[in-house]
Amino acid sequence: MEYMITNYTEPSTDGPAPGTPEFQEMMGAWMAYNQMLIDGGHWVGGASLAPADTATTITIASGAKTGTTDGPFAETKEQLGGFYLIEANDLDQAIELAAQMPVGTGSLEIRPVAFRPDAHNR
Amino acid sequence: MIDVALSRLARDDGPRVLSILASRYGDLELADDAVQDALVDAARTWQRDGAPDNPGGWLMTAARNQATDRLRKRATEARRVAERGAELLERQLPADAGGLSMIDAADDSPYPDDERLRLMLLCSHPALADDAQVALTLRLVGGLTTDEIAAAFLVPSATMAQRIVRAKRKIRTAGIPMSMPTEIDARLGIVLGTLYLVFNEGYLAHGPDTDPIRLDLMSEALRLTRLVAELSGGHPEALGLLALELFSKSRVGARTAAGGGLVLLEDQDRSTWEIADISEANDVLAQAMEQMQPGPYQVQALIGSYHANARVAEDTDWPAIVGLYAQLDAMDDSPVVTLNHAVAVAMADGPLHGLRMVERLEGLEDYHLYWATVAELHARAGQYVEAIPAFEHALQLATNADEREHLSMRLTTTRAAAALEANNGRTH
User: Fold this and answer.
1) Nearest CA to B284 among B315, B316, B326, B250?
2) Which end of chain B lies in a sparser environment, N or C, as judged by fewer CB atoms within 10 Å?
3) Global confidence as pTM
4) Are B97 and B68 contacting, i.e. CB atoms less than 8 angstroms apart?
5) What ipTM did this prediction achieve?
6) How far is the alpha carbon of A96 from chain B, nearest alpha carbon, in Å?
7) Angle subtended at Cα B129 by Cα B125 and Cα B130, rounded to the nearest 5 degrees
8) Cβ of residue A70 closer than 8 Å to a chain B Cβ
9) Domain count, chain B
10) CB count, 10 Å around CB of B130?
């Protein structure tokens, strides 16, 4: 089965600056996580997103665009930071894989993929 | 006679067959539908022909036939859509057609009835909501009908049916497996929590229009707790919960006053406590503690045993109970545990010591027993003026009929005591 893991975290304002050893260490943890997914045959796709204040929300009604606004539609401290698409046997394995993601604090939403047009026949 | 046989078939053999089919076909809904159809069939044919010699074997065969029928229909359907039907059928039909032999099939699992334990763990998967865990456990593991569960929890049948359908759909769509989890202790903890919830709902039912004590729910919870204890090969916490429930059950008859209302532990007629329950609980608890793996249910059962084995209230070893609550507090960081701890301290060292602990608690403002405790401790310390508003608050929040009766009685006596004191103050 395929699952999408979306991570909701508080954007780090005082995170390590690029070029510092701390930054290297943080990136290293993410690279290692990605590699673990690839090596285990779990990697399908994924991306890290720019902060939520760069987002644009459009609203649609009856199939037509009715509005374009700045920012995300909900005001919460935790925002969508990125996502992974993974392949796992079942929910227990998906939970196990998600739990290893090197996020500090936040929540991860795990949802089965219902349909993906570009999915290969597995 | 047939009705008894059918009821036993639904509650005992039904869930067993369901667990086997669900694990063989990897499809909970298919297995559930097949068992339900077979039970309907049993009700119809047994009335006419009488019960078969081996009801469990009969049900296994009937349910498996229902399942293969359904799969064939599904495959035909699928073939119509794509030419993959035959492959699907081949993959999903188990090779074994040995009927009852499946039930007794030995495998290398350390658990006596591995499939049924896995079904139980599945129903209490943390990815399911609490109320869904309870409903699924009673329905699929306990073999109760949706109507029976709805009646037990005072919700419309349609609501309960919807809840069960949603939970089954989540299991299928989210891919929740019926596998043996690696962290068995934690998962077993959720199963036990689910059963304790059912037991407590029976022990102290909510709602103004319900019986204050629901023996049906208590006995279902007890039956299933016995089953988990057996299926888990005597896991110490499962035995701990079983002992705890038995200690509580032993006092059920003494807890309600003749004219209604709750009788506190210290005022109960201990000669009416069920000796058989107490002595079974003592044995079960001993088996648990022999394993030297302490846990919250064992500690609570041990507290229960100190009460159950004190012949008169004055014999209660409160200092020992205080020590056990301190252990429980360390295991379970819940304000409700601390509240009970405070009550034990009050009994051991006096109400003011208990009050000091209670006043430090946070997050229990909506819990009627918090206010009832504050009120009772003030009253016992002779602080009637402080006790009255707390009793009033508790009465506003309480929903169990026996508890409400008790609280309003205490409110009346405390008001009288306060008035008497004020009167004495004026005359002296």
Assistant:
1) B250
2) C
3) 0.79
4) no
5) 0.79
6) 11
7) 90
8) no
9) 2
10) 13
